[in-house]
Amino acid sequence: MNEINPQELFAKYSTKGHNLIKDFSLAESQEMASQFTNAWNTIVTRAIESPEEWFRSVTGFYQDQFNLWMNMWNPSAPALVQAERGDRRFAAEEWETSPLHNYLKQSYLLSSRWLNNLVADSTLDDATKAKCDFYTRQFIDAMSPANFALTNPEVLKETMETHGQNLVRGLENLMQDMDKGRISLTDESAFKLGENIATTPGSVVFQNELIQLIHFKPMTEQVNERPLLIVPPCINKYYILDLSEHNSFVRYCLEQGNNVFIISWRNPDEELGDKTWDDYLEEGTIPAIETVQKITGSKKINGVSWCIGGTLLATTIAVLAARRKKPFASATFFTTLLDFSDPGELGVFIDESQVNQHEFRLREGGVMPGKQLATTFSMLRANDLIWNYVINNYQKGKTPPPFDILYWNSDSTNMTSAMFTWYLRNMYLENNLAKPGGIELCGVPVDLGKIDCPVYYLSTIDDHIAPWKTTFESTELLKGDMEFVLAASGHVAGVINPASKNKRNYWIGGELGKGADHWLETAESQPGSWWTNWDQWLKNQGGKQVAAPEQVGSEAFPPIESAPGAYVMARAN
Question: CB neighbours of 206 closer than 8 A, spacing ≥ 6?
C-alpha cells in the first residue's frame, strides 16, 4: 500500500462529507424524521396523561441505571441485562471483563429495552406503532457503543497495535465508498462476471431493449422435453441463481437434466423510465416464453421465478390465460408476494404520503436508483448490513472478505419510474393483485385464480422482504395443485442452499386451507436443502426425456454473444 498522508485524507474526507450531505434526499429524510418525531410526541403526550404509569416507567429505568452505576466496579454483581443470543456486536471479551465496557454495554441495553417497551406499550394505532418501532430501532442500532471508535474495545485495540493506521486506512475506505455511493460489503476486486462468477456456459439467443434471453448449454445427454424458463427479479441481476460453481442453482438444474433458459433484465437508464409493468410483460416475459417454445419446439414449458420475478410470472400467466393461452406445465415461485396485505417491515416505507412523494418526484420519468432501493433493504437488517461494515471498513480499516452473495447484493439495479410507482400503489398500497380483476394489464383484467397449473411455492421462515405468512396467502389465490415448502433462513440464503452442502432444513406436507400457523404445526421438518425436493417434484410433473440439443439456440435464434451477456454488466449509477 502506498504511504498514506493523514492530513490529505482528512481534507478529502471533509470535502466528500460536505458533498454527501448536500446530495442527500431531503424530502425522504424529512419524511422519516417527521413520522418518527410525530409518533414519539404522541407517545410522550399520552404517557403524561397517565402520570402514574409514566412515573413508574421512568423511575424503574433510572433505578436500573443507578444500580448499574453503583455496581460498575463489582465483578461479582449479576448483570442487569444481557445482549440477545447471536448479537455479534458484543462478542469481544472486553464487553464482559472490562468494567467500563461492561457498563457501557449494559447501560445501552437498558436504554434500548426501555425505549422499545415504551413503543410496545403505547396506545398508537398498529400502523403508526409499527413505524415508530422501526425508526426507534434504527436510532437504537445507530447509537450502539460498538459503533464508535472511542467505545469499541476491538477498535481501540486495533488502534494501539497499528499506531492509528487502521483509522487512516478506514478514512481511505470511506472515501472510496463515497465515490461508489454505498458501503462495500465484500472485496469486490475478487470477482469478475463470466470468469469466477456467472460462469455456467451458454449464450444470449434473443434480445430487445428490456431483456437478453440466455440459453445454457445442457450438461446431460438427455433432457426433459419441457424446457425450464427462469424469471429472476427485475430489481436484481440474474446471476444470484448462477454464482460460483458450487452454489449455482442454474448449474444444478442442468445437472438434473433440464434444458435451461433465463431472462437477464436490462438495468434501465433514464431513457427507459416510461417502461411500465405492461412493457415488462409484452417485451419481457411473453417474448421470452415464445422464443423458448420456438427454439425447443415444445408447447409446454416449466417456469421458475423469484421475488418480484414471481409477481411478473404470475401476472404473465394470468394475462395469457385471459388470452386463452396456457404455455406452462408447472410454475415455481421463490419467496414471492402475490397478496401484499402484510409486507412486513417494508410497509414502514409505504403509505399514501410516501407513495405520493415518490409519484411527485418521479412524475417526469427517469428511474428509481438501485442504490436507494438497496439502502432501503439494508435498513431492514441495519446491524448486519450497515453498522457491521461501518466498524470493519472505516474504524478497523479492513477490507471485507470475498463473498459472492454480497458481491451480487452490491450490484444493484434501477427500476423505471413508471413501473416503480405503479408497483408501489397497485401492489403494496392497494393490494389490487389479490383482487380478481383488480388490475388490468396488457388490455385484459388479471385474475390469479386463472393460474391452474401445478405450483411449487417456496418461502423462507426468516424472510424480511417477503414474510412467509404473507406469501402463504398465495395458496388461496392460485387454483393449481399446490406444493408449499418452507425453507430455513432468509430471503436469499434460504433459496441459495446447494444440495451438495446438505445444510439447514425445510418443512413440507402441512395441511393447506387453515392458515399459515396450522400449516407449520402439521408440516414435517426435513434435513438439508429443499433443492432435491423441488427436483423430484418437477420430475413428477411429467415430460418425457429427449436427446439434449447439441448447440444452444437454433437456426432462427443463433447465439448473439456468450453468457453472461452485456445487460448484466451494466451497473446502476
Answer: 212, 213, 287, 288, 291, 557, 560
Contacts of residue 386, defined as CB under 8 A and 6 or more positions apart, other chains included, come to: 141, 183, 378, 379
For residue 13, the model assigns a pLDDT of 47
C-alpha cell at 230: 427462469
Q: Are strands 301-306 and 228-231 parallel, antiparallel or unpaired?
A: parallel
CA distance 168 to 2: 12
pLDDT reported for residue 29: 55
Report the pLDDT value the prediction gives residue 11, as an integer from 0 to 100. Answer: 55
Cα–Cα distance for residue pair 497/249, rounded to 1 Å: 9
Say which residue the cell 436490462 belongs to.
266
Beta bridge partner(s), residue 202: 216
The residues that are catalytic are: 307
Domain 202-569 classified CATH 3.40.50.1820? yes
Residues 6+ apart with CB under 8 A from 291: 205, 206, 213, 557
Phi, psi of 436 (to 5 degrees): -55, 120
Strand order in the sheet with 211-216: 524-527, 505-508, 482-487, 455-460, 328-334, 301-306, 228-231, 260-265, 211-216, 202-207, 561-562
Q: How far apart are CA 23 and CA 6, in angstroms?
A: 25
pLDDT of residue 22: 45
pLDDT score at 39: 72
What per-residue confidence (pLDDT) applies to 27? 46
The pLDDT of residue 54:
79
Task: Give the residues of the chain that fall short of pLDDT 70.
Answer: 1-33, 35, 572-573
Give the pLDDT of residue 23: 44
Residue 45 CB neighbour total at 10 angstroms: 9
Q: What cell numbers appear for 391 in the block?
A: 466498524
End-to-end CA distance of the chain: 28
How many residues does the structure list for the chain?
573
Check if the beta carbon of residue 124 is closer than 8 Å to that of residue 43: yes
Q: For the whole model, what pTM was predicted?
A: 0.90
CA 168 to centroid of chain Cα atoms: 32
Of all residues in the chain, what percent are helix, strand and coil, respectively (each to 5)? 50, 15, 35
Q: pLDDT tens for residues 241-277?
A: 999 999 999 999 999 999 999 999 999 999 999 999 9
Residue showing cell 434500548? 112
Cα(546)–Cα(299) distance, integer angstroms: 15
Query: What is the pLDDT, as a whole number, of residue 32?
Result: 62
User: Where exactly are the structural domains of the chain?
Assistant: 6-147, 202-569
Residue 385: per-residue pLDDT? 86
Distance from C-alpha of 161 to C-alpha of 165, rounded to nearest angstrom: 9
pLDDT at 177: 86
CB contact at 8 A, 523 and 509? yes
List residues bridging with 457 in a β-sheet: 333, 484
Alpha helix ranges (H) inside 71-125: 94-97, 99-120
